[in-house]
Amino acid sequence: MNLTTATYIAQSALSTVSAESTVVSRNISGVNDASFSQKIANVITTFDGGSEVASVTNAQNQALFGNVLSATSASATQAALSSGLTSLLSIIGEPGSDTSPAEKLSDLTNAIQQYEATPSSGSLAAAAVTAAQSLASTLNNATNTVQQVREQADQQMASSVSTINSLLSQFQSVNQQIVTGTATGADVTDLQDTRNSILTQLSQQVGITTTTNSNGDMSIYTDSGVALFQGGTASSVTFQPTQTYTAGTTGNAVYIDGIPVTGSSATMPIQSGTLAGLATLRDDVTVTYQAQLDETANGLINAFAETDPTNSSNSLAGLFTNGGSTALPTSSQLTGLAGNITVNAAVDPSQGGDPEKLGNGINFNFNTSSQGSFDTQLEQYLTNLSATQSFSSTGGIGTSNTLSGYAAASVSWLDAEQQNVTSESAYQSTLLSTSTTALSNATGVNLDDEMSQMLDLENSYSASAKLLTTISSMFADLANAIDQATAA
């Protein structure tokens, strides 16, 4: 090896070590950045025996990163459901709570039993009416709460869609820079970190999968297979929010390039992410619970309905009415009935009514002999309350039960939904933490390793510098020898 070649090799070594040190310094500065991936300097030997950093790449593990995206989406789904269910339970109450419809029904049953035991007591009649008003008010408030939760979920869906579109726009810009940088051989590792950070944020809103081409271009699909980003272009995610919700309101679907991905019309429904959780809360959980409330209200109206003693085909609403109407609710009037149920004004003292009509008859006179202790109708109410009724399957808690049994099952159903979501949320949080740790171990920065590598590079730099100094000295000696030989 001649001195010129040795000089080149030593100089290239210094340049290579300097470039490697820069990469290690970047790693050390990014040690506390969760979105930062370890940078790797890829060193090659040149054709003339030197060395150089040919490229800088990220430490990658697509399988682990995919697990993090999946776990992030699943965790976000449960968080959205948990928030809505917590709102419902805070107003409606858990099993045994004195604010639940089941407990209010129990209070009414007890009040009627006491009134039936002493049917001549006007104060017990008034107490029974008060208990009925409390039950009706509880059903009204529960309906209002359910629709508020649906409305809030709808508003949050609009916010989620806005976030998705914003993230896709950011992704498109970064993705284009990566494609351009890859084509020119530029260092795109920081851009890749930024793109991965955007993907993580996007996975919080909707479950996603990705594919990457050899030129660095990435495509994004929902977990149901709908393209969110493909061919360098972001899809259009649209949603028209609904301002006010009633029990009969059907929320609008979310569309991706015209394809519905939420709601009953969805051909490729999304499975996870905040958006999926909110859609499930708005269109499934709350709708089912509203159906249970409506079935409870209908059961109450029927249990206290009065049949004309002179015409058995003529039945009217008694203690409880559908918004004041004495006509029994039709099947088309059941949706939202819990929000409309009221105590008959005929027994409400605040509206000029007489509570004792509860025992004697509200629409018809059952106490034709004007008995002072007439309890026949009260006994009938108690019989009706304990009798098995038929309920619609839309409530999801059975179609045959006593009214009290159905109301109790409704409260238990809501509590079980919350318990299931809480359990699943804890599991998904653990899975996310485990996946994130695994990814960090595989692609993140280990400060001890980087400091050790920096020390090795410093030693290499020192050795190369010493070699270069030695070669320079040899060149000087050679030059002196040539000068002396020429002078002689």
What structural class should be given to the helix and strand makeup? alpha+beta
Straight-line N-to-C gap: 29 Å
Please tell me how large the radius of gyration is: 37 Å
Oligomer: single chain
> How large is the count of helical segments?
11
Shape: rod-shaped
Keywords, separated by commas or semicolons:
488 residues; 2 domains; alpha+beta; three-stranded antiparallel β-sheet; 15 strands; 59% helix; four-stranded antiparallel β-sheet; rod-shaped; 11 helices
Describe it for me?
With 488 residues, this protein is α+β, with helices and mostly antiparallel strands. The protein folds into two domains: 3-59 and 454-487, no CATH class; 66-433, no CATH class. It has helices at 3-29, 62-92, 101-117, 122-184, 189-205, 274-303, 337-340, 357-360, 376-386, 403-443, 447-487, and strands at residues 39-45, 51-58, 208-212, 218-222, 227-230, 233-234, 237-239, 254-256, 259-260, 306-307, 315-316, 320-322, 341-343, 388-390, 400-402. Strand 1 (39-45) and strand 2 form a beta hairpin. Helix 2 runs antiparallel to helix 4 and helix 2 runs parallel beside helix 5. The protein is rod-shaped, with a radius of gyration of 37 Å. The chain starts with a helix and ends with a helix. The model has no long low-confidence stretch (mean pLDDT 89).
Short description:
The protein is an alpha+beta fold and 488 residues long.
